[in-house]
Amino acid sequence: MSNMLSVFGWLIVPTLALCALLAVMVILVRQRRPLGRRPSWSLTIGFWLLCSWALCVLVLTLLSGTGCFDPEALMCPSASFTLFEGWLDQEGWNPVAIRETGLNVALFVPGGFLLRCVSKAASWKLVLGLVFGGLGIELLQALPLVGRVFSLTDIVAYALGAVVGVGLGALLLSGIRAVARRPATGGRAPSQPA
């Protein structure tokens, strides 16, 4: 954890400041809409959380690299088209590569969850949108100035995280709808007379 803070520590305050600025912007846009057309506060907060998640993902994936920022940046490898490359090395399983893939899965679970909660689109469209977003991140990482590596394994991990997140969001929403459809019984069993 201390290693994570040393790498990402300088990003925490600016990212939180941008999220706060984003919250102010979302609230101002909500307030400018006519009363009958304003989204609910829960939808507004969900949209803000979704935008903040996207901002944090961009910061973590594009700005936190230890990439090659020297004149030899063009010589750095910038693409890996082998699935699960690095999981096995000469000594067996590589726990660092497996952990990184797991973190990439976990990175997209909140996005899928929030997107399912704030959007009425079909689940497959939400997953596809998140996968294309992850593909865009990976394409940006392939640029020499970013100094990161385009990885097919990361795209698969993003897709898995999106599927899990959208599934959890759908599960939560179906549970909420099931509770809302129950008749009010006043604490009695539904078959007891009043």
TrEMBL record:
InterPro entries, alphabetized: VanZ-like
Chain ranges of the VanZ-like domain: 94-171
Transmembrane region(s): 6-29, 41-63, 126-143, 155-173
Superkingdom in the source lineage: Bacteria
UniProt keyword terms in alphabetical order: Membrane, Transmembrane, Transmembrane helix
Protein name (Swiss-Prot/TrEMBL): VanZ family protein
